[in-house]
Amino acid sequence: MKLRADIVTVYRELHSWVGVVAGLFLFIAFYAGAISMFEPALESWLTPRVSLPVAVSLDRTPELAQKVFEAFPESRKNYTIVVAPDADHPARMVWPLTASRHGHGAQSVMMAALDEQGGLVTAQRKPSEVAQLIDTLHQQMGLPLPHEIAMIVMGFIALGYALALVSGTLVFLPALARALFAVRLEGSVRRKWLDLHNLLGFCSLPFHIIMALTSVVFAFHDVIFTLQAEFLAHEQSDAHRGGHAGRAMAGMPHGSRPPEGAVPLSPAEIVSRLAHEAPGFKPDTLDYSTHPNGAMMLRVAGHDPAHLMRGPSSGFTTMDPYSGRLIWRDYLPGFQPGGFAALTSFFALHFGSYGGAPIRWAYLVLGFAGAFLFYTGNRLWIAVRRRKEKATGLETDTRGTWFLGRLTAGCCVGCMAGIAMLLDTALVRPGWVSDHHAMTVYQVVFWLFVFGAFIPQIKERALLAVCGVFYLLLTVLVFLHGGRDMTTSWAVALVSLALGVALCRHALRRQRSRAA
Amino acid sequence: MKKRVIDNRQWPAKVLAGLILGAIFSLGIMVLIGHVCGSTGNPMTQSAQWLMWLAALLWVICLSLCFLFRTGLGAWLGFGWLACLVWLIDTLLTGFDAAGGS
């Protein structure tokens, strides 16, 4: 494929500059995003287990609910029945103590159980904030700003990311066939970084296209929907014209007000209706809430490994709690209309919410590879500038090259070190981290590394080595302190060991290459 | 005849054209198709969600193409008349809808 030379030049320049500006943010987004693939597992792993009597059977749930309503009348408005309680979520019935944002994020809940005499026993579960914080770092690209502002900034960086993808592909296309698998690790530094960057970029292109478009949408969908409603909604009520959250709840199909004296079906009956209506869909939670019109709403969250799911770990449906009829199946995995299933695939491809654990692990690898792609991009930019500067007879780096080199090292290693230190602290001082100090721990470590990178006496290999030690420390701490779930402990230990060894090796190699 | 080449000298004007006018154009196309399909703009409906994705995709495409204009002014004029055209059609359609509905 032949492109005009001036067009290739325009897009090459564009790719360099946009890539350099967006690359550091994207490194943080991809690194934290890769780890947040296991957010629920990490959250359970870091949250102290609460001891409660064995959960009542699903058939006895109405008795439990009645006792809860008598003791805590406010729970009636919004409560959840857990279909399959486990060691990390031991209660059959829970209700929130704090408001959640669109159902995202760690939420403190009250859990209820019955003792042997049938008396009500309650306990509070305060989930660890660490896993949620890593997800927030991913969403906000590490920006310490209020969420709404950070999302808009993130949106513009995501647009830059999309632009870098388009321009990078256009520039690389002409040389695609002959240069793809030519990774020349020997020879010039510039060529090594270029070949690695091209190979990584091309092989993960579909993944990056999905990520770029979905992140633009995640940032701007509220604004676009508001404008859409403004120009297209002629016959809608005011509820549909409000903020997105208000519209989403109001727009969600719900049952009408039941006749006086109607009794809702028991959770056991709901589950059996659901098994009949939607075989294959495994309900996880039955979320009961009250619509502004007074009608009781029932949203069921569940999973089906055989299908794509709309949320990061579940699909949804709403039911009439009185008749058990499925009211809305647009987000129900396996039962979605074709168009909605196609839309769901965009979300699922971003979240990796299909195919179960193997896909999550694959996304972890792709996420780390994505972060590395941006790192190689910046190193390449530095190597190219150095070569040009040397050609003009300069002995040392210009200020721009030096600045970007230091910033790249500081941001990338700082982000990795911040997350490692966060997990280290969460294992040693779980209570302290949960009291809103999690963000402070991350930001302090991150900025120490960024500032450290600009101190001339501190070499990049020292930053890499310290970060590597943080990860090796995490491996040790997992065996000393972690242990609520052996599978997660082993997974964290192995991943942190691999990262720690890789970072320390890289630090040593840089030292040797300098010495040579 | 000498072929005119493009370069990045006026990139700020081109980027702003792609960002601002590109957004106005993309949203205009979204509203236009929404009118034609009879979408209500309720975000829980399939049509509204597809239109939202379409607008985002078009915006990205506009931003990618704005560098192909030779000058910044060219980019503003190019996207400008496209945006005006789309919104003119939208306004006319809304007018027809209102007249037909009354």
Structure summary:
The complex is a heterodimer of chains A (516) and B (102). By secondary structure, chain A is of the alpha+beta class. In chain A, 60% of the residues lie in helices and 9% in strands.
Describe this structure in words.
The complex is a heterodimer of chains A (516) and B (102). Chain A has helices spanning 5-36, 39-46, 61-71, 130-140, 147-172, 176-179, 189-203, 205-232, 238-241, 244-251, 267-277, 338-351, 357-391, 399-428, 430-453, 460-480, 486-515; strands spanning 78-82, 93-96, 109-114, 120-125, 282-290, 296-303, 315-319, 326-328. With 516 residues, chain A is of the alpha+beta class. Chain A folds into three domains: 1-47 and 131-265 and 352-395, no CATH class; 50-127, no CATH class; 397-516, no CATH class. Mean pLDDT of chain A is 86; it is low at 235-250. Chain B has a domain at 47-90. Chain B has three helices and no strands. In chain B, helix 1 packs antiparallel against helix 2 (46-65) and helix 1 runs parallel beside helix 3. The mean pLDDT of chain B is 89. The chains are: A alpha+beta (516), B mainly alpha (102). The A-B interface holds A 6-7, 9-11, 13-14, 159, 162-163, 166-167, 212-213, 216-217, 220-221, 224-225, 227-236, 240, 244, 247-248, 251-253, 330, 337, 339-340, 343, 346 and B 5-8, 11, 19, 27, 30-31, 34-35, 39-46, 48-53, 55-57, 59-60, 63-64, 67-68, 90, 94, 97, 101.
